[in-house]
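Handoff note, outgoing to incoming analyst
You'll be picking up this chain. Sequence as last confirmed:
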Amino acid sequence: MLETFGVEPSFFRRALRSDFMRDGAIVFASTMFVNVLNYAIHFILSRRLGVVDYGIFTSLLSALVIVGMPAAFITLVIVKFTAEFNAVGDRAKIRILSTRVLGLGAILGCVGILLAVALKGEIASYLRFTDTGSIIMAAVVLAIGFTLPAMRGVLQGTQDYVALAISTSIEALGKISLAVAFVYLGWGVSGIFVGYAIAGICSFLYTIFVARRHWDFGPALVAIDARRLFQSTGAIVLGTSAITLMGFIDVPLVKHFFVPTTAGLYGAISICGKILLFIVGFIPMLVLPKAAQRAAAGRTPVSVLWQGVGVTLIFAVCGLVAFLLIPQFIVRVTFGAAFMPAARYIFPYGVAMSFLALTNVVVTYKIALHRFDFVLPLLAAVVLEPVGIYLFHTSLSSVITVVIAVTGFALLLTLLRLPVQFDRARIAREA
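Most recent structure output, in case you need it:
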């Protein structure tokens, strides 16, 4: 029957033998489960909170992502080097690196809480609301987010995707059950972040328990190459910061420049558009450890790149078709009738997020191969976005046009000098 449609059965046999496809199925299933729960939170809370309070929630959520960028750096550093150490069987280095980064994350979390306490009035004034308690609780969530990724990075780097899926599912289940319960108890936006904090703590306890089985408590075979570690960390910090800022900085800017109702609508637009970004978020989770491990073992990782780009394109196209044909249905089901004016904007915003998703895959592949020529182009793009929004914020359409232009520009520049041929000699020199 497969031959009738022009599909060779060997294609499916090869797909089933591919570790990318097998692990991808696990990560995709868990990611979709988490995404469904996360969007269920928005589905419920947008109706319970109303447009204005929902705008406060989404602006704080976006601010958390921006301020919490070091957590993304921590994760990528852990994943990259854990994959390399795992490839050569040196698990003592995995323990040493992860415990040191865990300590750094704890310090950053404490600093974040102290800054939130000191600046809560200024933050509330900038975002145009008065509930400073929600700022403090958001900072607690941020502190947990600085430590949890270090342990998840161990699971991702060793490709223990089942344990990683359980870790993320624990957090997502805790968020939807506790945050929604606290809102219905009348705790408002602050209650949401109380629930998020408890969920994060539960996930952290499980994650550190399972991550320890990938450690070796003996001495490392050789010392960790500090120069290579700092070089990778610097490039990851700059590149990941740029991608995160391009994806989230528009929401607090719109909250500042527009009236609360319009800002609430834009929060819904952003959440809908990021459906595409979040759905394909599992692909870099596969690309980084697999490409890094293959390169460290002297095998070509190029197939990992093509599989990652191909799967991203498939999901992006399917999502954009849905945004184009049934935008009103998507907005109504996700947020309710009060947010219907947002429907006309979700397709163009989805285009921007598709560009950003592809950029993320390419950048992740380059990080795995220790190629950091993407840093300057992304930094240029991230400067252009807030400048463009500042200059052209006459309407939501003009803001979204800026976001599309910047993300498309970033993708084109990142594709330059894309290493599609595997240079074993170069990898050996850098290792």
